[in-house]
Design goal:
It is built from five helices and no strands. By secondary structure, the protein is an all-alpha fold. It starts with a helix and ends in a 10-residue tail after the last helix.
């Protein structure tokens, strides 16, 4: 039995299996669209209620912040769908530089950053509609703990990325630098 024939068939099968991620990408994109359409619709309903005078100002602000939170959650689904597609199917999607995902670490960092913003908006929604009970402290501490953990993750990722870039630059300088004539043994 030829070793190259079996390995090539298995390699092709495993290589092709990455395209199954498209099913998840389509599902996540559909969820993104559903949440976004729902958020836009709910926003217009709240605005119509405000125009009719059926909503108090504080309630209006709370409802609009909740719609912003829903839009941000939809954005998380979009970023995950885009990231999975970029990682497994096609890396050449035209996107702004801050949204380009070439490595799993890029997706993790972008997702962590978006979740920090979502939690901040979620807490803002609770604070704006707070009626005076102790639940605001509980929600605030929970959101704060998660934001602190994700912020540490982002800081550590940036620190490691920066160190890796410095190490690569130093290695490039060592290999491309001309020899120092004063340090020559001759």
């Amino acid at each position: 039995m030829a070793e190259g024939t079996t390995g090539t068939g298995v390699q092709r099968l495993i290589g092709f299996s990455r395209y199954f991620i498209i099913v998840d990408v389509i599902g996540l994109f559909a969820a993104f669209m559903a949440l976004m359409v729902s958020s836009v619709w709910a926003t217009f309903v709240v605005i119509a209620q405000a125009i009719a005078g059926d909503v108090a100002q504080k309630e209006l602000v709370g409802k609009l912040v909740q719609q912003a939170d829903t839009a941000l959650l939809a954005t998380v689904l979009y970023v995950i769908a885009l990231g999975l597609y970029s990682l497994f199917v096609d890396d050449d999607i035209p996107m702004p530089p801050w949204l380009q995902i070439h490595h799993l670490d890029d997706l993790k960092q972008l997702l962590a950053a978006v979740v920090v913003v979502v939690l901040g908006v979620l807490f803002l929604g609770f604070a704006l509609t707070w009626t005076g009970g102790p639940e605001l402290l509980t929600v605030g501490l929970a959101c704060g703990a998660v934001i602190a953990a994700l912020s540490f993750f982002l800081w550590q990722s940036a620190h490691e990325h920066g160190r890796g870039a410095v190490d690569q630059e130093a290695a490039a300088d060592l290999t491309s630098a001309p020899p120092d004539p004063e340090s020559s043994p001759l």
